[in-house]
Amino acid sequence: MGTTAHGINCCSNKPRLRTTWRKRLRSSGLRPCGARPRLKGQARHMRLRRTSPTPGTLYESVAYIISNYLLLMNIRRYITTDHDAVMFLHEFTMKHVGAYKGIGPWDNDLGNIISNYIDNKGEFLVGLLDDNIVAMGAFKHIDHTTAEIKRMRVHPNYQRKGHGKTILHNLVNIAKNMNYKQMILETSFIQVNAQLLYKSFGFKEYKNEIIDGYNCTWYKLLL
Fold first, then answer.
1. Domains in the chain and their CATH numbers?
2. What percentage of the chain carries pLDDT values higher than 90?
3. Which residues, 6 or more positions from 144, have their beta carbon under 8 angstroms from its beta carbon?
4. Left (φ > 0), alpha (ψ -120 to 50) or beta: where does 31 sit?
5. What are the angstrom distances between the C-alpha of 84 and each of 88, 90, 95, 97, 111?
6. Which of 9, 98, 105, 203 could lock 198 by a disulfide, CB 3.0 to 4.6 Å apart?
7. Where does the pLDDT of residue 27 fall: very low under 50, low under 70, confident under 90, or very high at 90 and above?
8. Among 150, 153, 149, which Cα is nearest to 93's?
9. Helix H or strand E segment including 175
């Protein structure tokens, strides 16, 4: 068998096939076997929407499933049939961080979300994966310039995947379109992930307060 100047067997297809396989694998947006798949040009913790994989590439169908089904959260406005799922998500996430206070007047706003939020110059959004509500968030009207972020919840199994930030981004855009000038919110010291989310989005601390026995920090974002 002959060889090239670089010592590669010219009668063997192995070097060419291996190169082609790696190129096709990279163009598919997936990583080699055993590695965590992610889409090209995107951070590992923020794999975002991709309308379709590169046609004709290796693992095309797998890339399509990952990018268009498993990783996308459908966001829509709350409807009355969501109530039980919303209450479960609220209670479960608050118990998870040790901030659940039980049933009381502090949750009266969740008794009638339509009238307390949507019909009162506010908004209430839910995020769904595979038809299950895994995230939610809302804002309520304070005055003609100010809206307060409320009820930001992400199921613990789906946290740190960008879902909370997606809900928050949508709420801020809606508030801007409703001509609010600023958004405020409060969160307890023990809700560390929530604090990191708000700070990463640009919210600034402006006061501390004891609320129902919890040390809380107020944040503000100018729109």
1. 14-70 (no CATH), 74-222 (3.40.630.30)
2. 51
3. none
4. beta
5. 6, 10, 16, 20, 11
6. 203
7. low
8. 153
9. helix 163-177
What is the pairing mode between strands 204-211 and 182-188?
Answer: unpaired
Mean of per-residue pLDDT scores for the chain: 78
Q: Burial of 169 by CB count in 10 Å (0-12 exposed, 13-18 middle, 19+ buried)?
A: middle
Count of CB atoms situated within 10 Å of the CB of 168: 24
Find out whether 138 and 125 touch, Cβ atoms under 8 Å: yes
At position 72, the amino acid (one-letter code) is L
CA 146, CA 131: separation in Å to the nearest integer?
A: 32
Enclosing H/E stretch for 18: helix 14-27
Q: Give the single-character DSSP code of 38.
A: -
Rg value, the chain, Cα: 24
* Dihedral sign (CA 210, 211, 213, 217): negative
Q: What order do you get walking across the sheet with 74-77 strand by strand?
A: 74-77, 123-129, 132-141, 146-154, 182-188, 214-222, 204-211
CB neighbours (10 Å) of residue 133?
18
Alpha helices in 28-150 (DSSP H): 60-65, 83-96, 113-116
The encoded tokens of residue 68 equal 């268009």
Residues written for the chain: 223
Q: Which helix H or strand E contains 197, and what residues bound it?
A: helix 192-201
Question: How far is the CA of 118 from the CAs of 82, 89, 140, in angstroms?
Answer: 14, 19, 8
Percent residues over pLDDT 70 in the chain? 68
- The residue behind tokens 């498993």 is 70
